Amino acid sequence: MSAVKMENILKMTAIEKIKHLYWRAGFGMSPKEWKNASNLSLEQAVNDLFDRAKSIQKIKAHVFEFPSDRPKNLSKEEKKAIRKNERKLVLKQNADWVRRMADPSESALLEKMCLFWHGHFACTTKGSKIANDQLNTIRKHALGTFGDLVHAMAKDVSMIRFLNNQQNRKNKPNENFARELMELFTIGRGNYTENDIKEAARAFTGWSSNFKRDFVFRKNQHDFGSKTFMGKKGNFNGDEIIDIILARPETADFIVRKIYRFFVNERVDETRVKYLSKLFYNSNYDIKKLMHSIFSSGWFYYPGNIGTKIKSPIELMAGTMRTLGVMFDEPTTLFFLEKALGQVLFNPPNVAGWPGGKAWIDNSTLMLRLNLVTYLFQAVDLNFKTKEEFESAQRNKRVRRIKAEVDLIPMVEFFKNDPQSSVFKNLSSYLLQANSNLELTDFDRFIIKNNQDDFVKTLILRLMSLPEYQMC
Description:
Elements: H1 3-11, H2 14-24, H3 31-37, H4 42-52, H5 76-102, H6 108-120, H7 128-141, H8 146-154, H9 157-162, H10 176-185, H11 194-203, E1 207-209, E2 215-217, E3 227-229, E4 232-234, H12 238-246, H13 249-263, H14 270-282, H15 287-296, H16 313-324, E5 327-328, H17 331-341, H18 363-378, H19 388-391, E6 404-405, H20 409-414, H21 420-431, H22 452-463
Antiparallel strand pairs: 1-2, 3-4, 5-6
């Protein structure tokens, strides 16, 4: 490590490191969390995140109740009504999840891990019950062992239907799930053969679901014959195929590499990945132990890892909601923003999930990202007028219909008696992760200084409209 890099690390205060931790392991800090963090050491902050993730509650969401038997002779109108109702319920589940991410009383670490695994085991979910079941499965194992998570996801009804395992039967195997299991979910390309895919598909025959959206094993559709998989021979079923994959250290390397890119840096440090992969493999794929090691490591707080990640749309929205106490009146508002920004929960672009990184930014999303906070401010009566620059911003008509509540009282009260120079310094430190050489004078044209309330509000608006706010 260079002397300059070490000097920069030593200069970082505990609160700066905790701020980085809260963004990568969660969705930023609420004003109250920011205030409380000044009394914590980094070790205490890490342990607190994991302690709060211990109590995993099942989500009791909006679920359409299916009859015990398949209804007969449904009209086209009745079928259309059922599908419409299902879509509405999935929409509510989507909004509820984003609200949990933004809620300081919930476990930010647990929700962040769920978001990661949701993107890793990517599949489009169209039904309310299977969306709810899948999220509860991920929540249960998000910080458990990867082996338990993979076994559970292989029986997930949404995954089974998305990858056509309903059609996977003896003498006519469907290879979709077996292929993605190895290519995207466990061991990665180059570590299996086409024959391994064919044999694994046979092992998963009969893994299906019923009309009530529950997993079922259809014995008469399963191939009980001998199979040869990754050099081993036996009458393997799906669970045994997964165990053989988990026995390969390449699986630990593949998962750790993806975790590193999501939580640390898209530019992978091979030495660290090698160390973490060995730790992960030897711990029987203990996710909690792996994540604790990452967040407790000194290199996690290197300047090169801070403010270098483009926030995903969900991270951007949940973080903004957490910071400003935003509450949306309708689930459709969140859905519209997700769709406009390019990340709709329960609806990834394909089985590979969202690409992330620079793919989040394009001509259609950049202006909405930069003006998101402006739109939120203009959706409510904050008793002050924004500057002309914001008033004249081009807005989509649908954006103008955003209905939301914004609670700036905690922020305004926090700075009630502070000089404006201190407010600028502290707010900049709180809101921006990326390095910035901005001065208060740079904002003279855009902020109101004649009273403290409007000064804080307009400064928040301006800082959160900067490109630097897109980074964490």
